[in-house]
Amino acid sequence: MASRNISVSETSRPKLPRHTKLKFDETRQVWVILAPERVLAPDEIAVEVLQLCDGVRSVAEMVDQLAEKYAAPREAIATDVIAMLQDLADKGFLTEARESTA
Amino acid sequence: MSDTLADNKTTTSGPTDGLAVLEQTRSAAETYGIPLAVLLEVTHRCPLQCPYCSNPVELDRGSTELTTDEWKKVLSELAELGVLQVHFSGGEPTARKDIVELVQHASDVGLYSNLITSAVLLTKDKLSALADAGLSHVQISFQGNEPVVADRVAGLKDAHKKKLEVAKWTRELDMPLTVNAVMHRQNLHQLSDIIQMAVDLDADRLEVANVQYYGWALKNRAALMPTVEQIEETSRIVEEAQARLKGTLAIDYVVPDYYALRPKKCMGGWGRQFFNISPAGKVLPCHAAESITGLEFESVRSNHSIAWIWQNSEAFNRYRGTGWMPEPCKSCEFREVDYGGCRCQAFALTGDAGNTDPACALSPRHEEIFKQAERESAGTQNRFLYRNFAGGTLEADEHQDKRNGA
After folding, report:
1. Which of B63, B175, B261, B325 is exposed most, by the fewest CB atoms within 10 A?
2. Helices B191-200 and B228-244, interaxial angle, to 10°?
3. Mind telling me how many Å the CA of A28 is from chain B's nearest CA?
4. Which residues, including other chains, have CB under 8 Å from residue B369's CB and lie 6 or more apart?
5. Is residue B285 within 8 Å of residue B274, measured between CB atoms?
6. How many angstroms separate the CA of residue A96 from the nearest CA in chain B?
7. Which of B160, B154, B116, B161 is nearest to B135 (CA)?
């Protein structure tokens, strides 16, 4: 069973759970997150972060990658990325990879 | 970049309906853009006989249902139009032998699928097959928190026990679970226990939905209408639970509009952001719309595309926007807030779907109807008229409280 109430940190390896799907909506030309009874509209940055959430990469690695790409202070990026992922996790739209997942 | 992240909300969601998120960002020209989600009532057949069933009193017979290929064509067409989610509902959607095939097809064409089910026909294997076919969310109706009340309301012995079992399997299969509790005078006393049941079942969401009175529920209004005191207590319990269970269980609450001063923005406004498809393939602005006589609804079996029906058909355009409104809606400052309420309720209670919904305190019929509901709520008529294809069957006797279902 997917874990809930996860706490996102730099060591987390988050991924979207099976029932949460990130998709480009061709009709409306926007990215959407499909979840139970909900269609959410993530902004561009959120989309970029979510595309990095593959359950393998750690949040620290994502932050390094984004800090380099945008030539921005690592600390500020880390704060924002963690806050954004925690927000998604609190809504039940993010989970963590588990070694023992059968 | 950090500014963008800090200033923009990652996600937005409406207070009552997250599906409205994208609707809100649409320009006026796109107001009637294709809905994000569509309700598919794949059959009216159902082993339950709930007296408040939202299906029309005139049920579609099994022989009139769309075939597997017709539903598949509908699913492909919906995906092509830009619909993102489908809700497989009914009747009982798993009464169709091809439900796994239909869910698989929805996945194949890129649709996110929800199953709205009574659960009683599901086996663990069937549920597992649905999960493998890409089902993303299961919503199970509950009629109470224990078998005596629940099985009596459902009109089916051992239904409650089976629902608990299926809810457990749903979580074992790692699918999110919504508990849908339809509330009325004869089960509102169980609300606190139902909330706890949803927590114990590890549900993600709970819908506490007061009965909406059209179709079968209108026929059963005297047996179902809650008292004003019950509604006040219900609101208190829900608000307390929402605060206490934040982060554990999301609770959506639908109040009974008879006791409201403003009518509900039914379906988000007629033909604005919702349509459903009936078992026989009619494209409807609301699942109760067929109760309005005199309106012709087009079918997916016609020569018209679903997009054409949505945009151009007479039935969808009849009550769209505000142009059709009589007074007191016409000059009302809330006309684009609630769009005059519910057309089906206006028809059921006043005989004209073009009237102001009597749930509105500004309707000339409001006082009279509210008083009638209040009288019924205080009455002792507790017998149900069970929903079935024979036009309904009256519950066996007046001492049904001691009995356990039909």
Report:
1. B63
2. 30
3. 8
4. B258, B349, B358
5. yes
6. 14
7. B116
